[in-house]
Amino acid sequence: MISELNVRLFDEVTNLVAIDEPLGRLTTYEIGGPARFFAEPKNVEEVCLLVEKARRAELPVFILGGGSNLLISDSGIKGLVLRMNRLRGIYIENGKLHVGAGDSLPGLVKRASSMGISGFSRFAGIPGLVGGMIRTNSGGRHGTLADVLHSVVLVTRDGEETVRHVEEFDFGHRCSNLSEEIAVKLIFKVEWGNSADLDAERLEIMKQKTKSQPLSDRNAGCCFRNPAEGIHASKLIDECGLKGFGVGGAVVSDEHANFICNEDNATSDDVRRLLEIVKDTVLSETGYELKQEIIYWS
Ligand SMILES: Cc1cc2nc3c(=O)[nH]c(=O)nc-3n(C[C@H](O)[C@H](O)[C@H](O)COP(=O)(O)OP(=O)(O)OC[C@H]3O[C@@H](n4cnc5c(N)ncnc54)[C@H](O)[C@@H]3O)c2cc1C
């Protein structure tokens, strides 16, 4: 519920906050209604200020990275959405690589190989911002965030800065225990390699992904986690004959069955209904219960 009080609180920082900002265009799905309040803080002080204002106004806060793992409700978000894209900066300090949560992940992957830092090719082909990797321990069969991360600088919902070491995130298959805090900077371990070799490795992984995933379509990556070691959600969905099956404008990809694409002006409801159908069909036909990897905001 947005009260007049909420609006008045943000009046004090109107230069930072937009009202009814469309969100769909900020996601790879290109789906979703507006954010009642929206800001792109340019430094940690602004993150702390905005979070503190929202807390006083009892408004929920949503953190938006590159919007590449998100499905946003058609009716939008009745809270404050903070988009992290302006918190950028890549540098080496005390033998560690420091990266802003708002730096582009594909940009970091390229930059690391040109600097001769190994370990980042594993993220080739993954869109989004660097801070967006923490929630689901992004990565794949070549390794995940947990393998290269050292620590993260975070802002708590009370607007305080804190640092958490990699072990404190409980990283697992597409999960972590990050919930409330906002990542503002990630600090990575550094292992040196040869730039030309790292570039070749990155391009090879990109080539494999381009062959097997609908990278140029509108989607949010894999919809479901693999239900067990060695059991792939995509294979189960394919075996149920669901490739090409659609609801409204949303369709299960022919290239990779674990991707649902926005083929023709799909709504958030189309995607959600299709996700439910896929989940129910896989459960009844294979006995495996799929858990959703895409994060839904309403
Ligand atoms: C074509 C395609 C291929 C993909 N391939 C892969 C893959 O191989 N492996 C893989 O793991 N994923 C993959 N993904 C999914 C997605 O790209 C990753 O999960 C990515 O790391 C999400 O980053 P983002 O910035 O887009 O996060 P968003 O989608 O914006 O946000 C995801 C979650 O992180 C939270 N969040 C974002 N930024 C912050 C922050 N600074 N602090 C705290 N919380 C934050 C959000 O609130 C949300 O809960 C793919 C997606 C697409 C579209």
Largest sheet: 5 strands, antiparallel
CATH architecture of the largest domain, please? 2-Layer Sandwich
Spatial gap, N to C terminus: 13 Å
Strand content: 15-25%
SSE string? HEEHEEEEEHEEHEEEHHEEEHE
DSSP summary, beta strand count:
16
Average pLDDT value? 95
Describe this structure in words.
This protein is an alpha+beta fold. The protein folds into 3 domains: 4-83, Uridine Diphospho-n-acetylenolpyruvylglucosamine Reductase, domain 2, CATH 3.30.43.10; 90-211, Uridine Diphospho-n-acetylenolpyruvylglucosamine Reductase, domain 3; 214-297, Alpha-Beta Complex (Uridine Diphospho-n-acetylenolpyruvylglucosamine Reductase, domain 1), CATH 3.90.78.10. The protein contains 7 helices and 16 strands. The chain has a 5-stranded antiparallel beta sheet. Strands 1-2-5-3 form a 4-stranded mixed beta sheet, covered by helices on one side. The chain has a 3-stranded antiparallel beta sheet with strand order 13-14-15. β13 and β14 form a beta hairpin. The longest helix is centred in the C-terminal third of the chain and has 19 residues, at 268-286. It is globular, with a radius of gyration of 20 Å. The two termini are 13 Å apart. The chain binds flavin-adenine dinucleotide. Flavin-adenine dinucleotide binds at residues 28, 63-70, 84, 101, 126-129, 131-133, 135-136, 138-140, 182-183, 213, 215, 219-221, 295.
Topology (SSEs and partners):
Layout: H1 4-11, E1 18-22, E2 34-39, H2 44-56, E3 61-64, E4 70-72, E5 77-83, E6 90-93, E7 96-100, H3 105-115, E8 139-140, E9 143-144, H4 145-148, E10 149-155, E11 161-165, E12 182-188, H5 195-212, H6 233-239, E13 246-247, E14 250-252, E15 260-262, H7 268-286, E16 295-297
Parallel strand pairs: 2-5, 3-5, 4-16
Antiparallel strand pairs: 1-2, 6-7, 7-12, 8-9, 10-11, 10-12, 13-14, 14-15
Helix pairs in contact: 3-5
The structure holds flavin-adenine dinucleotide.
Flavin-adenine dinucleotide binds at residues 28, 63-70, 84, 101, 126-129, 131-133, 135-136, 138-140, 182-183, 213, 215, 219-221, 295.
